[in-house]
Specification:
alpha/beta, 6-stranded mixed β-sheet, 4-stranded parallel β-sheet, 22 helices
Length: about 800
């Protein structure tokens, strides 16, 4: 038996043996990806990775499984060694395919402060992916978005590196499991500092110093690598320090591999290599671009072979790059395939499909996750509602559309994006037909061009067909308040389309107004923001600011229900509304979660994954700004704008409950070692009259440093459930080297001095504090340092 077929050997041994048998042409195919449709039949010498074309045509998971089975057969039949392909898909809040679950998106889950929820969600997504044959997810997004103008905020867990690290580790563990042969590989993206661009613009130059790059932006990636064995990495589209990341050896090899310890493949974001030629102008042709990327450590080109095809082959023939570099990349792909167990079983697991896709427990978990993300940022006592005789009006453009509850990178928004492509084509017949995902499934044929209102109607029809339990916010409210009325008031997109008079009249007549405002997240011209759709303002789009101002003035009582990836930035709302509920982008069961929260069936405990600035222009603002920049760090004007009364409406970590909690008995003990482990505990009591969750947050501050340190850092957090009168003790086990940093010579040290620890319900409310003195500066093994405090409850 050839060694590469011997499953008792390690993936590395098997990959090395197979590599030694392959020709240059066969190796090149393994570092390529292709968008491929079952039955095309034109593969030769196999393929490294495949994205399935025609997913929108698949009505059932069985259709998708059959297509992937055929693709794998075609791929292996074209390969001398019957090498299977890695088949990838997106899976940020669920795999992008028909009938798959759409859980709350990442920014919503960031607000949950519940890694357990993320890990459970991804275990369910794993089962769906593996059952149909997807073994590689191009998720999660580990970027840290400080500038909320950036369109991809919804894909992240917020702008705190500790929160993102904890959530990312949970995501990877849930998807990959302890044995990758039974899981799907995660992909950490976008390495590195992709969100830190000039002007918050997608793909622009990343503006970041080396300390922030290493200590902040790399932290979630490093945590996922060291704690969860992250399978693959995807490059950023941007430049760092004058080099495109996809062609930067300093980023992709020196930092990622030599420093962070990553050993898996690096896959390109779609179309990255060609940007060296057509955008960055750092390569005169694709041959040179491919050579630079291969040298830097980019192992596989997605989504189609451009640079890593004939151009790279020519570069190899001319000696521009060596076969050793090709071998390095190919070996990583082959080893990854052996780790996934593809040579033993690359096919869909049909016996899993029914349980994976049609299990009622997935719906229950989805609703529970949506309830956990609900974040109450203001409440003057109006919530929870108890009087169902109230005359209710739902006013605002997001109140009666299902599509507004859905985030980017869901199957729903994939269909929506395809509608946008159809409109661009217009009535002309394209050379290659674009699949119409609605007309082909029994929906009315459309004419072009169409309006964004029509797009919402068509998407809602599609959602209702395949998610019949989904409701709009208005529909869910009307089930509890049968006489409720709905007024759109204005468009979510077109500032010229308004109906303020009707909205104000309805507000004046009602006992209670639910003001439903926000944005549509997704690709294309019919959305407000998402990938490639950045905005110059972070407030309410179109004419919603004016609608909100008028309705708040006319309403007797008003509850703002805000649906968006960004937090509500609206001074009138914070000053005049009776309550504000941030729903984020909860996807399928969002409306049910909203109404359950309004009525008190769900006691909200979501927390803000950002600081909410007082005004749109006051960004970036983040609670861990450096001493000297943070407004509380000293100095008459540090961190303050001269024309604003304050910086924030609400701080990071803030969120209200329908019950109250009391903190007491904060204690700290140390194991006494040079590089100590601390145990920091606190008692938390539910002092209210109903069950509720509290998010206990631990913050740390290095009081004096040899280099400028953050004003404070989130060190750990734990979401707990308490019955009325119940007390629980939360203990944080913190490696003090979590607060280590690199000195002027680049060495990681835990510096002598005083460290302050604070515990409270948000980043500004400090219930108690303890000072710990580190007596001696010590060098630390940074590869074993802590990333977030582990919490236990008793």
């Amino acid at each position: 038996m050839e060694k590469y077929l011997d499953s008792t050997l390690s993936p590395a041994e098997r990959a090395a043996d197979l590599l030694s048998r392959m020709t240059r042409e066969e190796k090149l195919k393994q570092i390529q990806c292709r968008i491929y449709k079952a039955g095309e039949g034109d593969l030769k010498d196999g393929m490294g990775e495949i994205f399935v074309e025609g997913l929108l045509e698949h009505v059932t998971p069985e259709n998708t499984a059959a297509a992937i089975r055929q693709i794998q057969e075609e791929c292996m039949n074209s390969s001398r060694f019957r090498i299977p392909a890695i088949v990838h898909n997106e899976a940020l809040s669920g795999v992008l395919m028909e009938q798959a679950s759409s859980f709350p998106t990442s920014i919503s889950l960031g607000a949950s402060f519940s890694p357990d929820t993320v890990q459970d969600m991804m275990d369910r997504v794993r089962r769906q992916m593996v059952s149909v044959g997807f073994r590689h997810a191009l998720s999660p997004v580990l970027d840290i978005p400080r500038d909320l103008r950036w369109g991809r905020v919804s894909e992240t867990y917020g702008n705190d590196p500790t929160l993102s690290a904890a959530m990312s580790v949970a995501f990877v563990k849930g998807l990959q499991t302890d044995d990758l042969k039974n899981g799907a590989s995660a992909t950490g993206k976008h390495f590195l500092a992709y969100s830190q661009t000039e002007g918050g613009l997608n793909m622009n130059k990343s503006v970041v110093d080396e300390r922030d790059l290493r200590e902040v932006f790399a932290k979630p990636f490093e945590a996922a690598i060291r704690l969860a064995n992250l399978g693959t990495i995807m490059n950023s589209y941007s430049e760092v320090n004058g080099r495109p990341v996809c062609a930067s050896k300093k980023i992709l090899t020196d930092l990622l591999r030599d420093d962070l310890g990553f050993t898996g493949p690096v896959v390109s974001d779609y179309g990255s290599i060609e940007r060296l030629v057509f955008s960055f102008r750092t390569a005169e042709d694709l041959k040179e671009a491919a050579a630079q990327c291969l040298e830097a450590g980019l192992d596989l080109e997605c989504p189609n072979p451009l640079g890593y095809a004939e151009p790279l082959q020519q570069a190899l023939e001319e000696g521009r790059v060596t076969d050793e570099l090709l071998d390095r990349a190919c070996l990583r792909i082959l080893k990854f395939k052996f780790e996934l167990g593809l040579f033993e079983n690359c096919m869909p697991r049909d016996e899993m499909i029914k349980e994976a896709f049609r299990n009622p427990a997935h719906k229950e978990a989805n609703l529970k996750a949506a309830e956990k993300v609900m974040t109450l940022t203001k409440n003057n006592g109006i919530l929870p509602l108890t009087d169902k005789k109230l005359k209710v009006a739902v006013i605002g453009p997001t109140g009666n559309g299902l599509r507004f509850l859905y985030s980017g990178y869901t199957y729903t928004t994939l269909v929506d994006m395809n509608l946008g492509r159809l409109e661009m084509i217009g009535t002309e017949t394209p050379k290659r037909p674009v699949f119409d995902p609605l007309a082909e499934k029994g929906f009315p044929k459309r004419t072009y061009p169409f309006s964004h209102e029509q797009a919402i109607q068509w998407m809602d029809a599609r959602i209702r067909k395949y998610d019949p339990e989904a409701k709009t916010i208005f529909e869910a409210i009307r089930e509890e308040f049968p006489d409720a009325v709905y007024v759109e008031g204005c468009s979510f997109l077109n500032p010229e389309k308004t109906d303020f008079d009707t909205a104000v009249a309805a507000a004046a007549e009602a006992d209670l107004v639910f003001l439903t405002v926000g944005a549509k997240c997704g690709w294309g011209a019919h959305s407000n923001h998402a990938e490639g759709l950045d905005t110059r303002n972070i407030g309410l789009p179109a004419s919603q600011n004016e609608l909100a101002r008028r309705v708040l003035q006319a309403a007797k009582k008003c509850v703002v229900i805000h649906t968006d990836a960004r937090p509500l930035v609206h001074t009138d709302a914070y000053e005049k509304a009776d309550a504000i509920l941030e729903t984020w982008l909860p996807n399928t069961y969002g409306a049910a979660a909203v109404v359950n929260t309004l009525l008190g069936k769900n006691n909200p405990a979501g927390r803000l994954p950002f600081d909410v600035p007082y005004d749109e222009g006051m960004i970036p603002y983040y609670h861990y700004q450096h001493n000297g920049s943070h407004e509380y760090s000293g100095g008459a004007t540090a961190g303050l704008y001269g024309d604003a009364p304050k910086n924030l409406h609400r701080p990071f970590g803030f969120g209200l409950s329908y019950t109250t909690f009391e903190y007491s008995n904060m204690q700290l003990t140390s194991d006494g070692k040079e590089n100590p482990v601390l145990n920091i505990s606190v008692d938390v009591k539910n002092t209210g009259d109903r069950s509720g969750d509290e998010v206990v947050q631990l913050y740390a501050r290095d009081l004096i440093g040899s280099v400028i340190r953050p004003y404070q850092e989130l060190a750990g957090f734990k979401r707990i459930t308490l019955e009325p009168g119940q007390t629980k003790t939360v203990n944080f086990r913190l490696q003090l080297d979590q607060l280590a940093f690199r000195d002027e010579d680049g060495n990681w040290i835990l510096e002598a001095g005083d460290f302050a620890f604070y515990i409270g319900p948000d980043s500004r409310t400090r219930k108690d504090r303890i000072i710990f003195r580190q007596e001696k500066t010590v060098a630390i093994d940074y590869t074993k340092r802590g990333f977030y405090a582990e919490a236990t409850v008793k």
